[in-house]
# Entry
Amino acid sequence: MKHKLFLLLIVVCTSSMMRADEEYVIRHYYDTVIRTVTDTVVRTEFIPDSTAKQREVVIPTDSTDRRGHYIQAHVGLGYGSLGYQLDGADNRVNGSFSALLQLQYAYYFHQNWGVAVGLWFTNYTSFAHIGGDYQWKDQTDTDYELHYDHTASVKSWRERETIHNLGIPISLQFQMRKEDWKAGIFAALGVAPSFSVSKKYKVVEGVIDHSGYYPAWDLTLTDMHEFGRKDYKDAPQSKGQLSVRPQATFFADLGALIPLTKQIDLLVGGYFNISMNNANSSDKADLGWKDDTFTFMNEYKGAYATTLANGSHPWEVGVKVGIHWHYIKPDKHEMEDYFEPFMREQTRTEYKERLDTVLIARADTIVPEHIQQVAEEVENFNKIYFDFDSYVLTKKAKAHLNSMAAALKRVPDAKIMIDGHASSEGSSSHNDFLSKNRARAVAHYLYCQGIDSERIIIAGHGSRIPNDEKELEALSRDRRVEVKVVHNDNVVIEK
# Structure
C-alpha cells in the first residue's frame, strides 16, 4: 500500500512539471511589440529604359580624294631666246636669262587627270652679234657729185633684243600621288596664245670703221667727216621697237609634288615652251647704218629687221617651283537620332496608418542556411548614415554598400528591405521626402553594383522611428538608412 501511494505521488509531480514546461514554451512563442507603421510606404523599382535624343556628328571629308578644284602658282627661271639666226659666218645670236610667272586654275575630273587655264608672264632675250665687212656699191657722197663704194668694217656690234609676253596657258595635266608616297608626279602639256606687251632692241656695243673708195680718183678715204671709226651705242638708231606678231606657244611641264599639308603641295620641276609660229613680222631691209648727220646710208632698225634674220620662234627652258592648293570641302556637321539608356524609377505607394501595441505569434519559420549567412553579413554594416538635410552617399557609406553588394551577389535569391529615416528637425513632409530619397539613393547604388531591382523593396519613414542607440549624437544617428535581408516577407534578423 505504501509503495502504491509513493508511485502515485511521483506520477502527479511529473505531470505537474510537464505542464510547467509546455507553458514556458508557449510563452516564448509570443512577443509583445510596439510597432510604428509609416503613413506612406513607397516601393520603388528601377527599370531599364531609353529616351530618343539628337546629337551632332562630324563626317570628315576624304582628303585622299585628289579630284576637285586647284589654284596653282608657278615661278620659273631659265634660259631663253627669240629663236632666230643671222646669216653670215661672223654673225650669231645667243640666248640669255629668262623668267616665268604663272597663275592658273585647274579642275581634276579624275584622281590623276585634270584641265587648267590661267595667265602667264614671261620674257625672251637674245644678243645679236654682227661682224665682218659690208660694202655698198655706187653710193653718192654729200656733195651729190661723186660716186664711191662704201665699206663698213664691223669691229664689235652687240645688241640686246627682248620681248615680254602675256599668255593664256591651256593645258591637260596629270598628277599621281599616294598617301604613303613622300612625293608625287606632275606633268602638263598645253598651248598658250601669247602676245607681246613689250618688244625692244638696244645696241649694247657698236663700233664700225667706215671707208669710201672713189673709182674716179682710185682713192680710198678713211679719215674724213663721212668716214672713220664711229660708235653707235648712243645713237638714236641704237634702240627701238621690234615688230612681233602674236604667237601660239606650245609648253610642257614635268616635276615632283611634295606634300606640305593635306591641301598644299610644293611643285619642283622643269618647263619648256616654244612658239609654233614665226613671231617676226618686220618689214625686212638690207643691213645698213645711218648716223646723226649723213643720209647716204640705209636706215637701221635692229638686226631682227634685217634680211640676215631668218624665222623667229621664241623659246625658253628652265626650272620652276610652285604651290598647288587643293580646295577640300569642310567636314559635314549633321544631326543624328540616338537613344540614351537610363534607369526609370517606378514607384508604388501603399497607405497604412496605425500605431499600436500588438502581440505577435512567432511562427516556426525555417530560414535556409545561405540566407541566414548573408543576413548576418549584411547586419554588420546595415546602417548607412547621411549628413544633415542630405541624401548624398558619403565615401564611407559607399564602402559599406560595396561590401553589402558583394555579399548579396553570392546569394541571388536573397531580398532586402531598405528603410529610410530622418532626424526630428524640420517639418514632417520634408522629413518624409528626405527619408524616401535616402532609401532611393541606397537602392540605386546597389542596383548599379549589380543587384537586381526585383530584389529591392524601399520605404521612407520620415522621423517617426528614432534609432535604438542611446548615444549623445542621437539626432545624427537618426539620419540613416537601414538594410535588412527578408525571407518570405519576414525579416531574417530582427532585434
Notes: The longest strand covers residues 184-214.
